[in-house]
Specification:
This protein has 269 residues and is mainly beta. The protein is built from two helices and 20 strands.
Length: 269
């Protein structure tokens, strides 16, 4: 308790506008929780790197939940409130492993046609991942979309055919092709499609920038604009796009940044 008190005091003395309460997952690809005071009146408007941040009414306290980007540098960071004040937090170091995979070379060295396709699709993906829908939330826990062995591949630096690519931004769940995928909580389908790398993909907006993504499906079972309830089937597991076999790539995003789904899912027994 004394160390936590001294840490918070240090932030305030350094010029933080609002005391910050961070939890142990405040690292690149993790979550930073900031206590913003008693939950009276309207929820505070909070931004991080120019994007709105999710704010919960957590047992009578306003609590911001910041999705920390995988590219974030270790050290001090802060969010900005509508009145111009700031709340500071610390991004801690976190080690991720490397992963080497073999795939068809066409998924590594793109032709002009496939590159143009990827660039068109990237706009649709970015719009879905950065969607903001202002709805009240009391928690952000997710149910597992499928039951199966979960990889610990989130954040791994990936090498395809020995060529380096961006870190892995989701959790791979190993289940047979054709396994039903269910919505981990209620939301609205903001996009679906067959994308070059992701294959058949579904995006669900759960509110306040909390977005989940499901890739490599054999079949899409929902449409853009459809409202889905927690537990409702949205598609079937497959092996479309850039894959080495059938599995579900499950991604979770906050304020446009990929965060480790393991932080939102119940622990496996």
């Amino acid at each position: 308790m004394m160390l936590r008190f001294l840490f918070t005091l240090l932030l305030v003395l350094a010029g933080a506008g609002t005391a910050a309460d961070t939890q142990s997952s405040s690292w690149p690809g993790g979550l930073a929780y900031l206590d913003l005071g008693a939950a009276t009146g309207e929820a505070p408007v909070v931004e991080f790197s120019g994007k709105r941040v999710l704010v919960l009414n957590d047992d009578g306290r306003w609590r911001a939940v910041v999705g920390v980007p995988l590219s974030a540098e270790v050290g001090h960071a802060s969010v900005t409130l509508a009145d111009g004040s700031t709340a500071a937090f610390v991004i801690n170091d976190h080690a991720y492993l490397e992963e080497h995979l073999k795939v068809a070379q066409s998924y590594v060295s793109l032709s002009e046609e496939n590159l143009a396709r990827y660039q068109r699709e990237r706009k649709v993906i970015d719009a879905a991942l950065n969607n903001w829908r202002d709805v009240p939330l009391a928690e952000i826990a997710l149910n597992s979309p499928v039951e199966g062995p979960r990889s610990s591949s989130f954040g791994k630096r990936r090498f395809f055919n020995d060529e380096p690519r961006n870190p892995h931004t989701g959790m791979d769940i190993a289940v047979p092709e054709g396994t039903p995928i269910t919505a981990p909580r209620g939301g609205i389908i903001t996009a679906t499609g067959d994308f070059y790398f992701n294959g058949n993909t579904v995006f669900i907006d759960h509110g306040q920038g909390l977005v989940t993504m499901y890739c490599h499906l054999s079949e899409i079972g929902v449409e853009k604009g459809q409202t889905v309830a927690s537990g409702e089937t949205i598609g079937l597991v497959g092996k479309t796009g850039r894959v080495t076999g059938a599995h579900l790539h499950f991604g979770s995003y906050l304020n446009g940044n990929a965060v480790d789904p393991a932080l939102l899912l119940p622990e496996k027994n």
